[in-house]
Specification:
- There is one protein chain.
- The chain is an all-beta fold and 249 residues long.
- It has one helix and 15 strands; from the N terminus they run E-E-E-E-E-E-H-E-E-E-E-E-E-E-E-E.
- A twelve-stranded antiparallel barrel has the order 2-5-6-7-8-9-10-11-12-13-14-15.
- Keywords: Signal.
């Protein structure tokens, strides 16, 4: 079965890695002591991760805080509500992460580690660790990112591992507050709803920044495909439209 994981701003169009997006560096300067803090909050019509619905088709509340440290290091936390009965890991997901991000000319890089915690899950092992890395670059008017995430063998993953690779593309529409996004990813390992442990996920979306406010509204079409999907009735894996209202500070 799939263990719930997120894409750091989760399946909102803000980081349409509904897949995996490494945490962005914080944006709000603290006054010159080398530490920057930012926060985000969102309401999404569904919490989707790597194409899979983790909120039972219901609204989810999400939010997090990032702290940028000197020399490109950062730490952060993020949380989302879950559908307790559908997902089976309680009503809350809490993620703790840290890493390093840097730029080399027009190339951006990010590496780190994230711990997924389910504080009110039932008996058993559910919490686990995943390592991630990504490289991004401007390609014409678009920003293209390629990344990987690897969760090593852990009890909570059935004493096996999971590998994920993805690519994200984003482009702003000139003269407008609209940005367009696309994503495709491939999972090999424990974190799928398939009999062979392989799945593809994808999304396309658009986001509109509301002028003069920290708010943005987004909509995306999200899906997941694989052979032998173990999901009678499409409870977790049916394609769907995700609407997001979020803010960054």
């Amino acid at each position: 079965m799939l263990t719930s994981v997120r894409s750091l701003t989760a399946a909102s169009v803000f980081a349409l890695s509904a897949a995996f997006a490494a945490p962005a560096m914080a944006q709000d300067d603290d006054g010159g002591i080398g530490v920057e803090v930012s926060a985000n909050v969102a309401m999404v019509s569904e919490y989707r991760f790597r194409g899979v619905d983790l909120s039972g088709g219901e609204f989810a509340i999400q939010g997090g805080v990032d702290v940028g440290l000197p020399a490109g290091f950062y730490v952060g936390t993020w949380a989302s509500s879950l559908d307790e009965q559908t997902v089976g890991y309680g009503s809350t997901e809490l993620d703790l992460y840290g890493g390093w991000a840097g730029e080399f000319g027009n190339i951006s890089t990010d590496v780190g580690v994230i711990m997924y915690i389910y504080p009110d899950a039932g008996p058993g092992d559910f919490d686990y660790v995943e390592f991630y890395g990504s490289v991004g670059a401007a390609v014409g008017p678009a920003e293209v990112t390629v990344g990987i995430a690897y969760a090593p063998d852990q009890d909570s993953l059935g004493s096996t591992d999971n590998f994920y690779i993805y690519s994200d593309v984003g482009v702003g529409v000139p003269g407008t507050p609209i940005s367009l996004t696309g994503h495709v990813g491939y999972t090999d390992g424990f974190l799928t709803f398939t009999t062979d442990g392989e799945a593809f996920d994808y999304s396309v979306g658009a986001e509109v920044a509301i002028a003069g406010t920290p708010l943005a509204v987004g909509v995306s079409y999200v899906g997941v495909e694989g052979d032998g999907i173990i999901d009678p009735g499409g409870t977790f894996t049916s394609d769907g439209v995700v609407v997001t209202l979020g803010a960054s500070f």
